[in-house]
Amino acid sequence: MGTMKPNPLTVTLYPNGYGMGYVIAENPKEIINYGVARIRPMTPSGYIKRLQRFIETYRPSLIIIRDPDGTGRMSKRIQNILKNFEEHTQELELPVYKYSREQVKEVFEQFEGSSKHMISKTIAGWYPELKPRMPDLRRNQDSEHYQMGVFDAFALMITHYYLK
Q1: Reduced to 3 DSSP states, what percent helix, strand and coil does the chain have, rounded to the nearest 5?
Q2: DSSP H helical segments within 13-115, as ranges?
Q3: Is the CB of residue 149 less than 8 Å from the CB of residue 18?
Q4: Is 100 helix (H, G, I), strand (E, B) or coil?
Q5: What is the pLDDT of residue 143?
Q6: Peptide bond into 60 cis (omega under 30)
Q7: Is the per-residue pLDDT at 14 higher than 80?
Q8: Domains in the chain: how many in total?
Q9: What is the pTM of this model?
């Protein structure tokens, strides 16, 4: 049995406090799958197991993640998970593209706004199937909506294709 040939797919992963937002796509117009994956246990190894499952299922040609060294708030736990993703994909010789929160904001400033809420509204406008998942505008005392991980993953994927 020869080596598995990668598909022309990207797997975009956005770990957060709930698990991990993801988008599997051929390109921004050909979305294969998306959602928020619950990770149990919420340990680095739990996230790596889910990454491995995505790789085995979809055989992507590249992985897109948030830059663990980028600007913006990010917990040490998420930084470590992202760095583990990088190490794991390097071992598999799978290219990883990383984008900072600032890069995402710069791309979306051209489309009417760079706040998370405005980015989500823009994405829901482009992908009507996401409208039911659209979180309400978050007030400071509110925790982030569970579905925001999907929008974060879409924003990373769009940023990748916009900048490439």
Answers
A1: 45, 20, 35
A2: 44-58, 76-91, 101-109
A3: yes
A4: coil
A5: 67
A6: no
A7: yes
A8: 1
A9: 0.88
